[in-house]
Amino acid sequence: xxxxxxxxxxxxxxxxxxxxxxxxxxxxxxxxxxxxxxxxxxxxxxxxxxxxxxxxxxxxxxxxxxxxxxxxxxxxxxxxxxxxxxxxxxxxxxxxxxxxxxxxxxxxxxxxxxxxxxxxxxxxxxxxxxxxxxxxxxxxxxxxxxxxxxxxxxxxxxxxxxxxxxxxxxxxxxxxxxxxxxxxxxxxxxxxxxxxxxxxxxxxxxxxxxxxxxxxxxxxxxxxxxxxxxxxxxxxxxxxxxxxxxxxxxxxxxxxxxxxxxxxxxxxxxxxxxxxxxxxxxxxxxxxxxxxxxxxxxxxxxxxxxxxxxxxxxxxxxxxxxxxxxxxxxxxxxxxxxxxxxxxxxxxxxxxxxxxxxxxxxxxxxxxxxxxxxxxxxxxxxxxxxxxxxxxxxxxxxxxxxxxxxxxxxxxxxxxxxxxxxxxxxxxxxxxxxxxxxxxxxxxxxxxxxxxxxxxxxxxxxxxxxxxxxxxxxxxxxxxxxxxxxxxxxxxxxxxxxxxxxxxxxxxxxxxxxxxxxxxxxxxxxxxxxxxxxxxxxxxxxxxxxxxxxxxxxxxxxxxxxxxxxxxxxxxxxxxxxxxxxxxxxxxxxxxxxxxxxxxxxxxxxxxxxxxxxxxxxxxxxxxxxxxxxxxxxxxxxxxxxxxxxxxxxxxxxxxxxxxxxxxxxxxxxxxxxxxxxxxxxxxxxxxxxxxxxxxxxxxxxxxxxxxxxxxxxxxxxxxxxxxxxxxxxxxxxxxxxxxxxxxxxxxxxxxxxxxxxxxxxxxxxxxxxxxxxxxxxxxxxxxxxxxxxxxxxxxxxxxxxxxxxxxxxxxxxxxxxxxxxxxxxxxxxxxxxxxxxxxxxxxxxxxxxxxxxxxxxxxxxxxxxxxxxxxxxxxxxxxxxxxxxxxxxxxxxxxxxxxxxxxxxxxxxxxxxxxxxxxxxxxxxxxxxxxxxxxxxxxxxxxxxxxxxxxxxxxxxxxxxxxxxxxxxxxxxxxxxxxxxxxxxxxxxxxxxxxxxxxx
Length: 1001
Prior knowledge:
Helices cover about 5% and strands about 50% of the residues. The protein has 7 helices and 53 strands. It is globular and about 95 Å long.
């Protein structure tokens, strides 16, 4: 199978191959009934024969322990358990969780970052670490949402070796903290009382990536011991460290947009030939456009039949063009350090104190180098699309798939980021049995995540009005042939366009130096007290109180004008501030596309102009002072949220019989109150402090029932009211949700936003039913159905409005005085705001099958399989205008209608191996999309991983792990929701191989 699957396969064939392999595994299991019948004792005969104990270790032991934990729970859960101490089944937490039915993941730079559970994305899922809600925040590429400024959890912050188990809670119970529509994910670290006595484990691996061709180390160490006459003291310390070097290469377009008016989402259309009617652009003194010229110094194309045909073919509102067509390489360097400490004291059999400490540090750098056409995303005021001549054009499916152009501005852009996430959590718990029937517990925790992006620097080299530029998507819709019309490796063909050229339209584009340091600080504190009373052998009453605070502060600074840069000093040329990118496009770009280009030398430019001085160097274009609140471009990145949540619950657990069948479960209610204060800075008066507040309460009843009509056959039912608090912002769209501020951009693109602190939370009624058959040891066949009636939903609304309408909407934030040339009262702005809508139903089912094939002959008896399939569908009504008078119905954002997971494994006393595959259907990321698109989304993914180990001695194990064997691409698109799917990102990161050893004492 591994040799058969290749990156170039069609998705239909991949899925067929996957289904065929899964079908074979199920067919192998048809011996279940026969084997069970052969093993069953004859009627009337007591099965008391003693058998030898079968010791299960490694991956099989992990699967078996997960099933046993699942069986014991009253709620519907899935559990993943470490194979051994400090040895989790996958190197990345998210990639382990995706093996759970109903869970899909999203990757950033080839590594699992966030999860979606049953179609509900990161904002709907709460994550708890060692018992308390937490948030880990990391930086990411722009296409993956950049820095996490919302409520979602970034799983790539932590090394998997730091944890002992993961529990995914899919149904709600009164005793479980509110805040999730999808699931509550519990990450539990290892504790010293998990094992008696002294335990030590260490591992080392060397990693290799076949695209970057770099080697990296990965280490882990754990020490644990129990002390005292009765082992009443325990201490554990673990450390995990890894490095990661990889390249990410591919094509991107920063979305597609209409080629021509109407609306604010286009850049003004192409330049019409002389005498063509209607003329585009129209006459403008400011831009220099008239009957003979597109702009000052740029003549219109001749009025020929070929020019007229090319123009009319391309210049249509219904034809979409790539806004920023480009090839690029991202160079990632990463170091991850994780440290845990756990200390336990049991002074008596009835009392236990635990102190858990978790520290994680993720340091990274990322350099992005792009070769791009700039003009298609810029309007007439920015010297953009309205100056372009169309010499030839081909349209297919409402996309300009081929174009030959003159007067295109070309840019070589380099960006360098320094990224750091530091996470610290301390939690203390006390448990005490007051009597045989009464017990209580107390918990306090504090978790802080500090994300810093102290250096985010972008520098450009530019070339004005290039002739003969072309793109061609006809042979490959994801990786077009791009001809830039000149030698992109020659410094003489590029320019550093400094302040000495002036600031008029004729000198655009100007080279840029962008400095955008930013960060996010998040703090959770939690205090909880619980009490439980065994009223009888069958019933336990529980009650508790939970108080937590959540604070998040975002900050950002920028230069006042990023497009003004100093001129090069005398004797300095482009060759002195540039270097060559080489070797681009392995197994990616088509013939005819450049694989090398000149790029800015960031270090040389930083040294030459002293750009990090945070000062005005005194030369034209040399003002590198950074401002935040008073800077309209940075103001929106400075905001804070303070939230207090107080909750009480009562719950009754029961374990009895119903018609002689074991019957257990819980019934309870949770009352939650949320108080929110949001602060930011609006666009008035150079940054006006704006504060808003909101308060809401929710009564959340819940019920979980488990009936066992036959041994090892479980029928489960769950019902609950649930809620999830509003997201703080949309990471992908970079749009503020909660903070009650306004923002205004008056060029080169005209946009406005309004925050809404009064948003109500997501609310839903949920119903779950499942059948679980544990038909043999370590085996499960299950079916689960779920239905969520989402009563309250939150979405972004985008609408094109003239500035006069914005003024009427908010006279102070959008005062006429803020709209200066080229802005006017009739200028069309795209307004974005978050609103509550009615939502809609979400429903689906999961099928899961797991079994070791002990009934097969010979070595096949050591094989086994784990399979699951999830189907989800939803009908969410999305506002399609600012007043929500028009709706469109589409899937929930982040929902993949189908997902599959399969693991085939072999394990004996010495050797263990497995192959795991995960398929996720395409899904939506934004509805409605930006730039006039109905939707934005991500294509289907297929990921194939493999691992193997060999027990060299009782203490030493050799390991091999291979990740992303298909070199799966990150393929994002924008479209019309029907047939057009225009590629916005198509990147790959290569295959990853780890070879190493583990030692356990």
